[in-house]
C-alpha cells in the first residue's frame, strides 16, 4: 500500500484464527483441528478438510511466532514500522505565510470581581502579566484555588501539579522582572489531559490498572508549552483509556448541567476549561474526543491535521488516528496554543514541519466555503435551530457558500476495525495479564470489552480496512481540494468518522444553547495542513457573536 504500508507487510499475520492465541489469559492454550474448523465461522471462510489438514502445521508455526514476539518487552513509545500517511496522490500543501505574531492588548484591567478572571482570554491574561497588573504566581494560585473549590463536584482533575506550577510561576515572574519575556503564554496557567506524561507526576490514563503509573519523561507538547512560558497546574481527567467521561475516580461532570457527564474522552479538559478552572487545556482525539467535550461544555476545540502535533510521551489508542489539540475560550486562543505545540519532532515519526500561516487580518470573504446542506436539512437534534442561525450569520458576513455532500459508497461501519486493532496491540499486555478486568466499566460498550474483542480481528481485515481508507482519502480530497472550509454538523452525520480517518483538521465552535440550556456547536473542516482557514472563519464568526463568551452559571463568586 502506498500510504498505510510504507514498508514490508506484516510477516506475522494473525490470519483468520487470531483468537487461538492467548485470548484473555496468560496461560498457553493448545488448539486442535476442531478448533480451527470452528474458527472459520467467525471470519466467514470455508476450507475443505484437506485444506485444513494442510494449513494446521502452518498455524502451529504462527503460534510459535506469536509466542516468540511476546518474549520481548515493547516500550510504550515504540511506533509500528507501518506508518499512516494522510496525503492523497499528488498532494501539494497550500502556500502559507510566515509564523503569526500575536498582539497583546495594552488596555486590559483587573476586574472588580476577581473571579471574573477565570473567563479571560489568553491575550487578556497575557496583558495583565506583561504589564505588571498581576503576577504569574498570583494568577497560578488563583486557578489552583478554583480547582480546589469546584472540582469536588466536577471531578475534572486527577492531579494538581502544585510544586511544579509554583516553581514555574516564580521563574516566570523573575524573568519578567529581569526583562526577559517569552511571549504571549508567559506565566499563564493551563492543564493537560492525563494521557500526557509529565515527569515527577502520575500519568494514570484514567484507568484503575494504571492509577499509580509514572513515566520518567515529559511529553513534547508540555515541554513546548513550558518553554513558551506556560505554567502547568493540572493533569485533567481522561475517560478510562480514552473512552467516555468515566474514570477510576468517578464521572466528570458538565458544568452547564452537572446531572450529565462532560462527554469524552477529553472530559476533564472540556469541563475544567468551561468552568474557568484553567484558561485552556490540551485534549486528544481519535474519534471525537476533542469535538464532543468541546460541544458538550460550550468551548472551542481544535483538532489539528494528523501529524501536526507530536504525540511523544502520550498514550496511544490508535497510532494512525490519534491527534492532540487545544481546547480553549475561542478560536484565537486555540490558534495561539496550536502555533506553539505544532511542528516536527524527532521523537514522533509521524510529525511534519509545514508552516502554520495564520493571518487573523485576512479578509474572510476571500475564503471559498462549502456546507453540507443535506446533512443540515435532515438534522433532527436540538442543535439544528442554532446551526441554521449560525449559517445565516456567516452569510451576513459576506461569505459565499456552496452546497456539498460527503463521499458515499464507502464501508463506514468497517473502519472501526482500524482503531480497535491498533488499541488491542498497544494494550496487549493489559489484556493478556487480565489486568483489564480491574477497569471500572466492564459492560458491552466499555473499553475493557473493546480491547478483549480486538484479539479476534484478523490482520487481513485490518489491512483491507486500510485499503478502503485509501479510497476514502482520495474521495475526501476530491471533495475538499477546491474549498478552504466545509461547514458541517458536529454530530449525526459521517463527518466525524471521515475526518478522523483521513486526518483532516476541524474546529468545533459554540453556537449558543438549545431549549434545555445545553451548549450546541458547528464544525468547520479544513484541508490537510490548513488549520489557518478554519481558524480564520471561526474567529470571524466569534467576532460577530457572543457564544464564545458564554460560561455556565455558578462559577463566578
TrEMBL record:
Annotated Amidase domain residues: 139-492
Single GO MF annotation: glutaminyl-tRNA synthase (glutamine-hydrolyzing) activity
InterPro entries: Amidase, Amidase_dom, AS_sf
Domain of life: Bacteria
Cross-referenced Pfam families: Amidase
Protein name: Amidase
Organism field: Maribacter flavus
Amino acid at each position: 500500500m502506498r500510504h498505510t504500508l510504507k514498508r514490508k507487510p506484516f510477516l506475522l499475520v494473525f490470519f483468520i484464527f487470531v483468537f487461538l492465541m492467548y485470548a484473555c489469559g496468560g496461560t498457553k492454550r493448545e488448539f486442535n483441528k476442531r478448533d480451527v474448523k470452528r474458527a472459520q465461522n467467525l471470519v466467514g471462510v470455508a476450507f475443505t478438510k484437506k485444506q485444513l489438514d494442510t494449513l494446521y502445521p502452518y498455524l502451529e508455526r504462527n503460534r510459535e511466532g506469536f509466542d516468540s514476539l511476546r518474549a520481548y518487552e515493547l516500550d510504550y513509545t515504540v511506533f509500528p514500522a507501518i506508518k499512516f500517511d494522510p496525503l492523497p496522490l499528488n498532494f501539494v500543501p497550500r502556500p502559507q505565510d510566515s509564523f503569526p505574531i500575536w498582539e497583546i492588548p495594552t488596555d486590559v484591567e483587573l476586574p472588580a470581581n476577581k473571579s471574573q478572571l477565570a473567563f479571560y482570554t489568553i491575550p487578556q491574561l497575557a496583558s495583565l502579566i506583561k504589564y505588571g497588573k498581576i503576577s504569574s504566581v498570583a494568577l497560578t494560585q488563583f486557578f489552583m484555588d478554583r480547582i480546589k473549590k469546584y472540582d469536588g463536584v466536577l471531578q475534572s482533575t486527577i492531579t494538581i501539579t502544585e510544586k511544579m506550577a509554583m516553581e514555574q510561576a516564580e521563574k516566570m515572574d523573575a524573568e519578567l522582572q529581569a526583562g526577559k519575556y517569552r511571549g504571549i503564554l508567559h506565566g499563564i496557567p493551563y492543564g493537560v489531559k492525563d494521557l500526557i506524561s509529565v515527569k515527577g507526576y502520575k500519568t494514570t490514563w484514567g484507568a484503575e490498572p494504571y492509577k499509580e503509573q509514572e513515566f520518567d519523561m515529559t511529553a513534547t507538547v508540555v515541554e513546548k508549552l513550558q518553554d513558551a512560558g506556560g505554567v502547568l497546574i493540572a493533569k485533567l481527567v481522561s475517560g478510562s483509556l480514552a473512552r467516555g467521561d468515566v474514570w477510576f475516580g468517578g464521572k466528570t461532570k458538565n458544568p452547564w448541567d452537572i446531572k450529565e457527564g462532560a462527554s469524552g474522552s477529553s472530559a476533564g479538559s472540556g469541563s475544567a476549561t468551561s468552568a474557568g478552572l484553567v484558561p485552556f487545556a490540551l485534549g486528544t482525539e481519535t474519534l471525537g474526543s476533542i469535538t464532543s467535550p468541546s460541544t458538550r461544555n460550550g468551548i472551542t476545540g481544535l483538532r489539528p491535521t494528523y501529524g501536526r502535533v507530536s504525540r511523544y510521551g502520550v498514550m496511544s489508542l490508535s497510532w494512525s488516528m490519534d491527534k492532540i489539540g487545544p481546547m480553549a475560550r475561542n478560536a484565537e486562543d486555540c490558534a495561539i496554543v496550536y502555533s506553539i505545540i505544532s511542528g516536527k519532532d524527532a521523537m514522533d515519526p509521524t510529525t511534519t514541519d509545514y508552516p502554520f500561516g495564520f493571518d487573523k487580518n485576512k479578509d474572510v470573504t476571500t475564503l471559498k466555503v462549502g456546507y453540507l446542506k443535506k446533512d443540515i436539512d435532515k438534522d433532527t437534534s436540538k442543535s439544528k435551530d442554532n446551526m441554521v442561525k449560525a449559517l445565516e450569520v456567516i452569510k451576513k458576513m459576506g461569505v459565499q457558500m456552496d452546497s456539498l455532500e460527503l463521499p458515499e459508497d464507502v464501508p463506514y461501519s468497517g473502519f472501526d476495525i482500524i482503531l480497535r486493532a491498533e488499541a488491542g496491540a498497544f494494550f496487549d499486555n493489559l489484556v493478556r495479564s487480565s489486568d483489564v478486568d480491574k477497569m471500572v466499566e466492564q459492560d458491552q460498550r466499555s473499553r475493557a470489552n473493546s480491547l478483549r474483542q480486538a484479539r479476534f480481528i484478523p490482520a487481513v481485515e485490518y489491512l483491507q480496512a486500510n485499503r478502503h481508507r485509501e479510497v476514502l482519502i482520495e474521495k475526501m480530497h476530491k471533495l475538499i481540494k477546491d474549498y478552504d472550509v466545509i461547514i458541517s454538523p458536529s454530530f449525526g452525520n459521517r463527518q466525524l468518522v471521515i475526518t478522523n480517518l483521513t486526518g483532516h483538521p476541524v474546529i468545533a465552535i459554540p453556537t449558543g444553547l438549545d431549549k434545555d440550556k445545553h451548549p450546541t456547536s458547528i464544525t468547520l473542516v479544513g484541508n490537510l495542513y490548513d488549520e489557518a482557514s478554519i481558524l480564520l472563519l471561526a474567529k470571524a464568526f466569534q467576532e460577530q457573536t457572543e457564544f464564545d463568551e458564554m460560561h455556565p452559571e455558578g462559577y463566578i463568586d
